[in-house]
Amino acid sequence: MSGESAVRDEGTNIDGDTPLVESTVETDEATITDESELERTLGLSGGLAIGIGTMIGAGIFVFPGLAAGNAGPAAAGSFAIGAVVALLVALPTSELATAMPRSGGGYYYISRGLGTLAGTVVGLSLWFGLVFATAFYLVGFGYYAVDTLAELGIAVGDRLVIPIAVLFGAGFTVLNVTGTENAAKLQNGIVALLLSILIAFLGYGGLDAIGLIGESAAPEQFAPLGALPVVTTAALVFTSYLGFAQVATVAGEMKEPGRNLPLAMVGSVLVVGVLYVVTIFVATSAFGSETLAGFGETAMVEVGRHYLGSIGAFAIVFGGLLATMSSANASVLSTSRAIYAVSRDALLPRGASRINLRYGTPHVALGMAGGPILVLTATGRVELLAEVASFLHLLMYGLICVALIALRRDEPEWYDPDFRVPGYPVVPALGAIASFALIAFMQPASRYVGIGIVIATAGWYAYYARDVDLKGAL
Amino acid sequence: MTRILVPLAILEGESISAGLASLLEPMNVTVLGYHVLPEQTPPDQARVQYEERAIDALEDLATEVGADDGTADYRLVFTHDREQTIDRVAAETGADVYAITGATGPVDRLLVALTGDVAVERIVSFVADLVGDREIGATLFLATDDEEGGRELLEMAATPLADRGIDVRTDLAIDEPPFEALIDAAADHDAVVMGERAPSLRSLVFGEEADRVAAGSVGPVLVVRRQEEGAEETADRPSEAAPDRPARDGES
């Protein structure tokens, strides 16, 4: 699978570096290069924990109030649309991930399938996309932290949300630079705990909402604002589904990638999709959507209080803290991996992927993630942050589908995925169309920021890495 | 011949003491250089930066244990999980024994621990192979509450070794805390041979017994691996798991 790449001229960037391309043999347990082996240590549960742990924060703990305000109870439909789009993209991503079980995720597939320009734009956009997403999670965390204090009887008000968020953002960055031993195990535990809290809560709330226990809820028109807000809300809340592709970024570390990657990606989308839809249903049944919107980012706490009193409120506050924290932390990690992937391919200076001798961590990349995250967190613009993150990810998702179609059309000899998308070419084509279409429904401000980032990254390509050739290089 | 795996945290300066190197010289040895990374660092990222340095060190070490005679080779693995790497490489190379390096001079006498639910026969036959016709003595050690049975077991284990002309002694510890008794006995010996035990609650809390013995005795410990159920399955794994692995016996 490497013979042809050895004689290719990969081209150099402005610093004179070429992409590091080496022949490898992928087995279920390790990746074997000429001189050494890379152990695959993540199992299926670890992969699911990454996917679910990254996704579960926003959709349940930050968006219900905002989404219900925008679309009424039909916000449940917005989340369902998001889930369908995510699923349409998760399937092609799974196929590409099993064909190229390397670290780097979506960036890797696009640069190999569509070439260096698309690769640079996506790789650098992914960095910024994750930065925006992390900032968004951190702001959500700030709201929950303030609410926690309020539940404990210390009312500090919303003016402390941003300082707390920035403080914790700095904390995560430092923690990741100095090493997070057993973070993965902790993440598994957090995800399991969260799922139990949510299933218990949603189970009870769901029974109540359909009138089996308690008094029946006040009827409300399902889509009071019409169909368009349902779609625009889907574009907003799509940030909730950004986690599944993070599973692909650790593809190089996953055992039996041919089986575990598709299962982890598709499985985590299905799990959180169902949870999101039920959550909105329960939330809008507990309160009218206007009341819900009035509660803002932490509306779910009031929903918890409505059903289960202060225990419910406490469970949701606690869950929200855990969930936003785990999403933020997972995204900081993914960001540093995205930076490594592009610098390895000579699209960023090599120094960006240096590892710290003392802690063994990629301190430069983590700094390149942490710095911008803090700046963006300080703006506190929840919806804008979420939408820009969605924009940049949707761009990548659409291009992943296009890359799949491109690769399948002239199927290179090395292309041998263990998992093939059912319903090709309809599924990837729909995935691409749906991803790009969602972008069209965003607020203009988010689109301008997103387009600005794309132009800037394309400019960087033209300046720095015009001669680098990645297409088809494995 | 038995293959011995010697795992080393290669970038942290672990190496093979001269005593251990000469003890292992007649055996087939695979030096497993590994580097454990925190979870936030992709193994590949560390490889890019450290591979060359690690290979240099590994080549030197492999030469010490007989790479020039073709009895030793090395492998380099970047990992998040040390145990998993040792298990996988041991299975792939068919290594029945792994070594925990420690400080020691020339090895004159081995302490062979037979305590607990271990494969006594395999341990004894490994010791016979290891010693060969060299002037190395062996002390068979057993800690038990059953004096009668213990004596019998030691007798039975000592016979095949004595038959091969090895200087065998036995050491039976009755009603003593097994671990402490073993560490005490190890003081008069240059290296310890022991069997791997099934994972237990105790090993979960205190760490693997072999690691604790190595820490307590300071010297090297050779651990005869547990044979897992379906042992024949491991036998044909190497060819399957690493299809076109380049052959390299230290001379790359």
UniProtKB/TrEMBL annotation, chain A:
GO cellular component: plasma membrane
Main localization category: membrane
Membrane topology: Multi-pass membrane protein
Protein name as catalogued: APC family permease
Residue ranges with Basic and acidic residues bias: 1-11
Superkingdom classification of source: Archaea
Listed Pfam families: AA_permease_2 (PF13520)
Compartment(s) of residence: Cell membrane
InterPro entries noted in UniProt: AA/rel_permease1, APC_superfamily
Organism: Halosolutus amylolyticus
Region entry Disordered, spans: 1-36
Spans traversing the lipid bilayer: 48-68, 74-93, 114-140, 160-178, 190-207, 227-251, 263-287, 307-328, 388-407, 419-442, 448-465
Keywords of this entry: Cell membrane, Membrane, Transmembrane, Transmembrane helix
Biased composition (Acidic residues): 25-36
TrEMBL record, chain B:
Protein origin, superkingdom: Archaea
Start and end residues of each stretch annotated as Disordered: 225-252
Domain UspA: 152-225
Source organism per UniProt: Halosolutus amylolyticus
Source lineage: Archaea, Methanobacteriati, Methanobacteriota, Stenosarchaea group, Halobacteria
Protein name from the UniProt record: Universal stress protein
A Pfam family matched in the record: Usp
Transmembrane segments: none
